[in-house]
Amino acid sequence: MQLTGDRFTSEAAAFGNDLATLPNFPAEIRAPAGTLPGVSSFQLHFADDDILTPGDRPDVLVAMNPAALKANIGDVPQGGTLLVNTDEFVKRNLGKVGYDANPLEDGSLDAYQLLPVAMATLTQGALADTGLSKKDAERCKNMFALGLLSWMYGRPTEGTERFLREKFARKPDIAEANVLAFRAGWNYGETTEAFATTYEVAPAKFPPGEYRQITGNAALSYGIVAAGQCAQLPVFLGSYPITPASDILHELSKHKNFNVITMQAEDEIAGVGAALGAAYGGALGVTTTSGPGIALKAETIGLAVMQELPLLVIDVQRGGPSTGLPTKTEQADLLQALHGRNGESPVPVLAPLSPGDCFDVVIDAVRIALRYRTPVLVLSDGALANGSEPWLIPDVDELPDLRVTFATEPNATDGSGEHWPYVRDESLAREWAIPGTPGLQHRIGGLEKADGKGSISYDPDNHDRMVRLRQAKIDGVEVPGLEVEDPGGHADVLVLGWGSTYGPIGAACRAIRKRGQSIAQAHLRHLNPFPANLGEVLARYGTVIVPEMNLGQLSLLLRARYLVDVVSYTKVAGTPFMESELVDVFSEHLGTTLAEAA
Amino acid sequence: MTTVDLELGLKPKDFKSDQEVRWCPGCGDYVVLNAMQSFLPSLGLKRENIVFISGIGCSSRFPYYMNTYGMHSIHGRAPAIATGLAVTRPDLSVWVVTGDGDALSIGGNHLIHALRRNVNLKILLFNNRIYGLTKGQYSPTSETGKLTKSTPMGSLDHPFNPLSLAIGAEATFVARTLDNDRAQLTSILTAAAQHRGSALVEIYQNCPIFNDGAFDVLKEPGEKEQRLIPVEHGQPIRFGPDREHAVLRNDRGGLEIGPYDENRVVVHDATTDDPAYAFALSRLSTQDLAHTVTGVYRNVDRPTYDDQARAQVSAATDAKPADLRSLLRGRDTWTVG
């Protein structure tokens, strides 16, 4: 089903629609088919104008079996279209999910446009002459559904046919069967009177340029490759498989021709350790994981803080604590990223706001890591990782110059001709003196070091100074100012978010403005250090609402740092906010404001 | 590859750092440090091309005392960190210094995986059969029944035989020596340095504070001859004051100790591909030190992880240019405007 969703998304993208997706699948690889926990769904929102979310409630639900219908019918508004594979609506399957009667027949779906289609039977019929077994033929029914949908929405089909032929290049008979099923679905729509209606969703109006569709994990991967190229450094990824971050490891493993080495380590700790070892040797060291992996990597990130070596750490957040909800989204690792290590251990933290933004955020994170010689954490999440959107392909010539200068000369300030590892530059970064450089032999480690010279030091004043220096270095990291979207400049309520909530927050703010009210929106891409103007922005608004998919972690930081009593709105359901839900929440505060004004 | 230059003219003192060595007086670590500083010039490597990476523990202070590049990392993780360095920097000679707690307890996972990958690392495992830096708890190599602060009624765990573990983990180079045998230590370090791949060298080393005399029976004249079984490649394995004992093949396909017998004595072959032989040798060493085999047990060739990882990058680079523009565009694009 995820593949079918991906293809329909690609067709929408190729047609020029704006789009946003929400894949939703169980953590189990082969969850029992036809049961409610086994339902794998893919929500796609496409439009002829600029959209920000996968949508609250789908206009069309394609249900391949009773479980899929039961699990999702609650999301479909009355009057919505249900395209249903009737072949699966047999007594046994109905019973599995607790339907006493067949909902296709008992009138319970009267409020919807029901389009019953025997998809398996029709697919098997279309493939009767291929020599494929009935079972293999039946497996192509998702492509039948895709063909039918493609006809309903007038989607281009060449891309899907090409895709199928490439995907099954080694099994040409399976490839042709899928193409046949796909065409059969299309033809079924075209020739059946039941489908009187087709829908036209015209291409959206985007800024000019060349576009493609991209998921967050792909954008992170490309960002890493691009950063290595911009820095002219080899990339070393040390990673351990974990949902939903493994796709970054998979993607980077395909691009060794960009001087990328990927190592599937024995565990999370080895992944970050090897990345740090590579960074010590002058490579761009990267490790990718999800929340539980960050917990395991904490000690090594602390070592990187102490050794002041560049390191990129990517956390694709998922539901927690512990194993939590591996395939669902959440943003509850913010405090772990900021504070989840022993001692005073500051690291810069960034968070992308959309799938495409993952690319830019990684490049910015690498800029900071290389310039300040520090580990940097990037907080993506499950919704960004698998969700996709149209992406204006970056101009390679416009990417930043991230080249670094390795130390080549001894730097001791006492004229001894030695190399002192903890001599700092104007941004408080120490030199990156890599092994192999003559005359710069030195030792670094996790023990506290003397300021400048870098010998082991237990001196109390030195430790106090070094703790403050490490903090001052990170506090001084240059980050862009926070931009506020406040058309008209009259808003009294500001909504401040971070990470993947950008879409639903933005959509809710637009909806509110459309009905004539003012509301301001700002979104933090830098969580540490905060943009320098954040305090001033917060002070400008009477009410600041902070929606988060956690129990108020950013709110806690804002209250502590700026003494502003922000309004925290939280949800930890494993799914993104809905636009309508946020409109209601924001409206409560707008209402108060209006009433007071009156 | 590491460049070798025998004309460098480096002396042992050139490998001493300016840091004051802070091990306890009488610690076996001094012997190893001195042997290392004396032996390194013979490798013909430039100091800047040598890196020592350690974990945590007494022995892990080692890098601070070497005038090379060095990293004192975190407990148990040195093999993982060193792997990342070795994979990306083929020009370096990377050494891991670790102890019995560091390598076999908290870092056991990284050790076995480094060995099976056969990364170009030389791992020196200082085994004093005790936790020193944390002041005297039993370690994974302590003999059963060890009385320590954490085991006042005696330790219960059966100890690891580090070399059995390493061989089981597919190690390609495995050796053992004692801190008081400088000649053997130097010859083993040389062989390890020349080995392409992971080399594990276990060094029995005395902790004079928390486990003093742990290896005395292997050092005392009269005792040591009965217990130490030194192996040399190509030589029959004989020991005893009059070389009257030998390692013999038994009829169960394994090895045993018995009176020298010309027909049954094992001629040591470290290059034997079948790890069962080296494993059988390692099993002759018992936790009560009744017998201990020293020398290079196993020294075989197998492609290394890091060489192959770099070869994949070269192959990919040769096959396809690094065209970032093309990567970012992907396959399906559309143009607006």
UniProtKB/TrEMBL annotation, chain B:
GO molecular function per UniProt: 2-oxoglutarate synthase activity; magnesium ion binding; thiamine pyrophosphate binding
EC number: 1.2.7.11, 1.2.7.3
Annotated GO biological process: cellular respiration
InterPro entries in the record: 2-oxoacid:Fd_oxidoreductase, THDP-binding, TPP_enzyme_TPP-bd
Domain Thiamine pyrophosphate enzyme TPP-binding: 56-203
Alphabetic keyword roster: Oxidoreductase
Listed CDD domains: TPP_OGFOR
Bilayer-spanning residue ranges: none
Protein name per the record: 2-oxoglutarate ferredoxin oxidoreductase subunit beta
Organism: Actinophytocola algeriensis
